[in-house]
Design a protein that fits this description.
Length: 336
């Protein structure tokens, strides 16, 4: 007897920087194994967002926001519906994904990405693809039938699934866009097979807040903090928006030193910085020279985008994330 199962999944995201591709998982491992002996191929039960339980159990309890909180003459929220969708996605992918990858090219350390077939210059006078992803620090994405010239760019730090590989390329599927591409191997870091993503950080650009969550069992997540944050702003030629996407925590610095705009002179530092894409860190309140001591809090947190690309927090909350979230085992979701 043949058991036939149809599984359709879509993840939608409103985004200014890139287009989310919605498609059925007709190429997934679920479908590929449908017509085998069911006694040898276990059926994987997928979780829906309604089956995701999110309970408040704070570890960090300073400056905590409510689910709905006042801002000026309106209200802001934590978008738990979107958060649950992404947690369900992460849980379902981990049921069958065997190899996780991080797409990497911080400061073009793995080589400047080749020009895509169609490119333009943005307001910062930098080359981008048709979706607005900049060439600098990006990863080239090649169509499955053409490995000579890339079609698009991917952000540094994007989480992707391994599909297969050739001598020089690896076929991957970025989790955010759910489309397969060939990527030169030098732009890829494979995460240890033993890693299970149990910690997630959600940055909300619309509501200027941040939440950290921890998985304790299948479909069960605990809220560890709910705080105000400030994301990147569009202000050429230096400040940029925090990009939307699904990223892996890649690096940490107790002090992330930054330069004054347009110069090589040190402008100060940001404490307890956790990098997830390009030069974007989750960090504490910036300390401008000549000051040296850490600033705990700023009244601008949770108001309007002010950063160059980073996500500002209270410094003690940035320290909490710095100590709580492991590198290459923590996922950062940036949503609208």
């Amino acid at each position: 007897m043949l058991f036939i199962l149809f599984i359709i999944y879509s993840c939608t995201e409103s985004t200014a920087n890139r287009k989310v591709i919605n498609q059925p998982h007709t190429d997934s491992l679920f479908v590929k194994g449908l017509l085998t002996d069911p006694s040898k191929t276990p059926i994987v039960k997928r979780l829906s967002e309604q089956q995701i339980s999110v309970l408040k159990n704070l570890i960090y309890d300073q400056y905590t926001l409510n689910d709905t909180f006042p801002y000026k003459d309106t209200f802001r929220i934590f978008q738990w519906d979107k958060i649950k969708k992404r947690l369900a996605l992460l849980e379902n992918l981990q049921k069958y994904t065997k190899k996780w990858l991080v797409l990497q090219n911080y400061k073009n350390r793995n080589g400047e990405a080749p020009l895509v077939k169609v490119y333009k210059r943005n307001n910062y006078q930098r080359i981008t693809d048709t979706l607005g992803i900049e060439r600098y620090q990006s990863i080239p994405l090649y169509a499955l039938n053409d490995t000579l010239t890339p079609e698009l760019y991917a952000h540094d730090g994007e989480l992707a699934e391994y599909v297969e590989e050739s001598e020089k390329f690896m076929k991957v599927k970025p989790v955010y866009t759910r489309k397969k591409w060939w990527v030169p191997k030098r732009y890829i870091k494979q995460i240890s097979d033993t890693v299970v993503f149990k910690k997630a950080i959600f940055v909300d650009r619309t509501n200027q807040n941040i939440a950290t969550l921890e998985r304790i069992a299948e479909g069960q997540w605990l809220i560890r903090s709910m705080n105000p944050a400030t994301t990147g702003r569009h202000a050429p030629p230096y400040a940029q928006e925090t990009p939307l996407g699904i990223f892996v925590l890649q690096d940490k610095k107790i002090k992330m030193v930054f330069l004054k705009d347009g110069s090589q002179e040190t402008g100060g530092y940001a404490p307890y910085a956790s990098r997830f894409t390009d030069g974007a860190y989750i960090h504490g309140v910036p300390v401008n020279v000549p000051r040296t001591e850490i600033i705990e809090y700023s009244r601008s947190l949770g108001t309007t985008p002010r950063s160059h690309m980073c996500v500002r927090n209270a410094s003690s909350h940035a320290k909490f994330i710095f100590e709580w979230a492991p590198i290459h085992a923590t996922i950062i979701f940036v949503l609208e």
